[in-house]
Design goal:
The chain is 36% helix and 18% strand. Helix 1 packs across helix 7, helix 2 packs across helix 4 and helix 2 packs parallel to helix 7. The strands form two sheets. A six-stranded mixed sheet has the order 7-6-1-3-2-8, covered by helices on one side. A two-stranded antiparallel sheet has the order 4-5. By secondary structure, it is α+β, with helices and mostly antiparallel strands. The protein contains seven helices and eight strands. Helix 5 links the parallel strand 6 and strand 7.
Length: 222
């Protein structure tokens, strides 16, 4: 945790001095997915697993999305034996810091979740990094559970790239889901427990504000 706070402080100083040149688009400029699953008329829950840098902020964003019933921080992409924070942070396990989203498909669609992912949860043009965090464990990835999720995710990436919504091509990996390993308890609901931590204040609180301001139809206060 000290490492992330230190990097956040350094990153803040450099950004203020040099000016931020992020390519992240405003949520208002990101269109709805042209290919999406219709809202279900059958009650039940589904899951989505995505990765977009440090899981603290991504988890916090989706905790405030309409129709989402639960979000867990964890690891995906590697083996069970290496699904431990001390090892994942090395960048050599194949894991990405990921979140597992449980949602009600009668209230929010998979495509709408991806819109939040691309619009406010992270910058999909950054390769193997997000903000001050670098390494393959911070890569942008969508771990699709079935053919429908794969089809929707790929179509949306193609749609956004074709429209040149971002200043650079999207580098998000779209890969088959194998397993999700829940992270240590102290990582869960991290923003809620540490709202004033410098890393959270600078990197993650603005994501929540963007969700509330720019995607009000998908935002739920808690």
């Amino acid at each position: 945790m000290i490492r992330k706070s230190l990097f956040a402080a350094i990153f803040l100083i450099v950004t203020v001095a040099a000016g931020c040149s992020a390519t992240k688009a405003s949520a208002a400029t990101i269109p709805d997915p042209a290919v999406d699953a219709p809202l279900s008329t059958i009650k039940g829950e589904q899951t989505a697993v995505i990765a977009g840098g440090c899981f603290w902020g991504v988890e916090a964003v989706f905790e405030h999305v309409k129709g989402v019933t639960d979000v867990k921080s964890g690891y995906s992409g590697g083996s069970a034996s290496s699904a431990e924070y001390g090892r994942v942070r090395s960048g050599r396990t194949g894991h990405a810091e990921a979140v597992q989203i449980t949602y009600d498909p009668s209230k929010v669609s998979y495509g709408q979740l991806l819109k939040v992912f691309f619009a406010v949860a992270h910058d999909p043009t950054e390769l193997n990094r997000q903000g001050p965090d670098t390494g393959t464990q911070y890569r942008s990835a969508i771990f699709y559970a079935d053919e429908e999720q794969r089809r929707i995710a790929q179509a949306y990436v193609d749609q956004l790239n074709k429209a040149k919504v971002f200043g650079k091509p999207i580098v998000t990996q779209i890969t088959a889901f194998k397993a999700f390993y829940e992270a240590e308890e102290y990582h869960q609901d991290y923003l809620a427990h540490h709202p004033d931590q410098p890393y959270i204040v600078y990197n993650d609180q603005p994501k929540l504000e963007s969700l509330r301001r720019e995607l009000p139809d998908l935002y739920v206060a808690k």
